[in-house]
Amino acid sequence: MLEAIITYEFLQNAFAAGILIGLIAPLLGAFIVVRRLSLIADALSHVTLSGIAASLFLSKTFVMFNGLNPLWLGMGFSVAGSLLIERLRAVYKHYQELAIPILLSGGIGVGVIFISLADGFNTDLFSYLFGSVSAVGRSDLYLITGIAVIVLLIVFLLYKELFLLSFDEEFGKASGLSTKALHLIFMVMTALVIAASMRIVGILLVSSLMTLPVAAAMRLAKGFKQTIGLSVLFGEIAVIVGLISAFYLDLAPGGTIVVSSIIILLAAIGYRNWFAVKKS
């Protein structure tokens, strides 16, 4: 496998991008799960699908859009969707969870329309839906690297604020914390990570990489920082094992990464239960 990575540029791109995604997706996922916003990743991933389908439609219909990387429009739709969620949460103050199904439904509807206009599914769209080892280009890798740097910097600089927002938002408000600005930053980061992850994991499965490693880590960790560390570790293992399996078995990497994450989750639950029985 190492020889193949050295030989083929597309494998270099896929593994480099996968390692970055395995870092930032569970990292942000830890905050998402603690805030009980796991379904936001699903909603934004479907909005991203609309952007990808729109980009493929534009490139097929208008010559000027032939060279457009669908990742850019998908990322734009995802960020716009994150802003819309925040707006809807403000409109429905007492029923904020409504923002998620509204956006998810809208994302699916708009996506289906653009897919129909683009004359249905094709190889490009399939790779965005379920991920592809060979589809990650050098430009995609540069974009994913940029997003990873931005996310890591923001989490490092605003860790205390994000921690407080996740565990005690009311206390944060009372302490003078600008919760609206933090919400906005957090949602935009989530949108960017989802857009970055879809090349490897796929749009329909990206939320799994943000939640399954965290779910496994929560069974073993004794604190939030440990949860983040284990989430990242499990995410990296799932991505690497998934990419290797996808390469040798000629499968979509999204599926192999998610199955690897599920195996890790089951192992964590099994170990926890075994440890509890042994202790008792």
What does this structure look like?
The protein has one domain (2-279): ABC transporter involved in vitamin B12 uptake, BtuC (Orthogonal Bundle), CATH 1.10.3470. The protein has 13 helices and no strands. By secondary structure, it is mainly alpha-helical. Helix content is 80%, strand content 0%. It has helices at residues 2-7, 9-34, 38-61, 70-91, 99-117, 123-130, 138-157, 159-167, 169-174, 179-197, 206-218, 224-249, 253-279. The chain crosses the membrane at residues 14-34, 71-88, 100-121, 141-159, 180-197, 228-249, 255-275. One of its GO terms (cellular component) is ATP-binding cassette (ABC) transporter complex. It is a multi-pass membrane protein. This is Metal ABC transporter permease.
**Mean of residue pLDDT?**
84
Count of individual beta strands: 0
Main pleated sheet: none
What is the succession of H and E elements? Answer: HHHHHHHHHHHHH
N/C terminus separation: 44 Å
Report the top-level CATH class: Mainly Alpha
Family: Belongs to the ABC-3 integral membrane protein family.
GO biological process, one term: response to zinc ion
GO cellular component, one term: ATP-binding cassette (ABC) transporter complex
Keywords: Membrane, Transmembrane, Transmembrane helix, Transport
What is this entry, summarized?
Pfam families: ABC-3 (PF00950). This protein is an all-alpha fold and 280 residues long.
SSE layout and pairing:
Elements: H1 2-7, H2 9-34, H3 38-61, H4 70-91, H5 99-117, H6 123-130, H7 138-157, H8 159-167, H9 169-174, H10 179-197, H11 206-218, H12 224-249, H13 253-279
